[in-house]
Amino acid sequence: MRAPSFWLDSLGPLPRRDPLPGDTTADVAIAGGGYTALWTAYYLARAAPDLRIVILEAEYCGFGASGRNGGWASGLFPVSPARLTRAYGADRADAMQRALEDTVDEVGRAAAAEGIDCDFAKGGTISLVRTPAQLRRAAGPGLLGADEARAICAANDVLGGVYSEHCAALHPAKLVRGLADVVQRLGVTIHEGTRVLRLSPGAIVTDRGVVRAGTIVRALEGYTSGLHGHRRHIAPVYSLMIATEPLPAAFWDRVGLARRETFTDERRLVIYGQRTADDRLAFGGRGAPYHFGSRIRREYDLVPGVFEALSRTLTELFGIAPAITHRWGGPLGIPRDWFPSVGLRDGVAWSGGYVGDGVAAANLGARTLTDLILGRETALTALPWVNHRSRRWEPEPARWLGINAGLRGTALLDGLSL
Question: Model's pTM, two decimal places?
Answer without folding.
Answer: 0.96
